[in-house]
Structures are given as structure tokens and as C-alpha cells.
Amino acid sequence: MVVDELSDETVDRLFHALADTTRRDILRRCVRGELSVSRLAEAYPMSFAAVQKHVAVLERAGLVTKQRSGREQLVRTDPDAVDRARRALDALESAWRGRVDRMARLLAEDPGAGTSRTGPSATGANDEKEGPER
Asked: How does DSSP assign 68-123, residue by residue?
């Protein structure tokens, strides 16, 4: 699937990055303002290196940027990348809504489509029960 200028690989990286709770939280925190990786690490029950790895995944997806300021690396959310992720989700929603609408129209056109047959007669099995052999 290509959404505007997004390749499948780009969309995959975006959704992979957003699939993790910690990464989504890092993204939310950085939307409010840039934070250092060490400041981010204080908020999570994991090592500094683990937080760095989460930030690296977000950075590869283009959702955040890092900038060195002295000894610290400052992380900031890229609003354009967040907008690209939103557009990718909007495109998926549109595609699935279209599919659901087409299914609904097909079901409405076929009066027998909403009924199901259950029980032995639905499978063509013998409706008569046989007792135990004597």
C-alpha cells in the first residue's frame, strides 16, 4: 500500500514504532516539548540503554529527531511525521470502510445471505438418530 508519498517500508516502520506502549508514551511526552534522553529514562522502569533503543526506533521511523546539546541528546517529535502516520491510518480506514460498505450492499441485495443453517440437516447428515446396536 502506498499512501501519498509513503512506501510500504515507511508505513511498516511507522506502525512498528507506534506498536509499543513505551514508544507511544515517549512520543506523547516529546510532543509537549523536547526532552533529553536521560530525562526520558527517569520516567521508565528500564535502563537508560533500553530507552535509547526505543528512541532509536522512533527516530528510524521519522517520528522524532535527536539533536546534541552539550553532553545531552534532545529528543523532539516531528509533527510532519505524526501527520504522515495519521494519513496512513486514514487511508486504511477509508479502504476498510469501503469494503464493509460493499459487503453490506451485497448482503442487502441477497435476501438469504443473512440466514444460516445449523444442525445436522445443514451438513446433509442423516436427521434420524440411531440407537445403540443390540
From this structure: EETTEEEEEE-HHHHHHHHHHHHHHHHHHHHHHHHHHHHHHH-TTTT----SHHHH
How is residue 62 written as a grid cell?
521519522
Q: Please check whether residue 33 is in contact with residue 64, taking contact to mean a CB–CB distance below 8 angstroms.
A: no
- How much is the pTM? 0.66
Tell me the pLDDT of the chain averaged across its residues: 83
Question: With the CA atoms of 21, 23, 29 and 35 taken in that order, what torsion angle do they form, in degrees rounded to the nearest 10?
Answer: 150
Using alpha carbons, select from 11, 19, 85, 78 the residue that is nearest to residue 54: 19
28 Cα distance to chain centroid: 16
- Measured from the Cβ of residue 115, the count of other Cβ atoms closer than 10 Å reads 6
More reliable by pLDDT, 114 or 90 = 90
What one-character-per-residue DSSP string does 28-53 give?
HHHHSS-EEHHHHHTTSSS-HHHHHH
What are φ and ψ of residue 128, in 5° steps? -80, 140
Task: Assess whether pLDDT exceeds 60 at residue 19.
Answer: yes
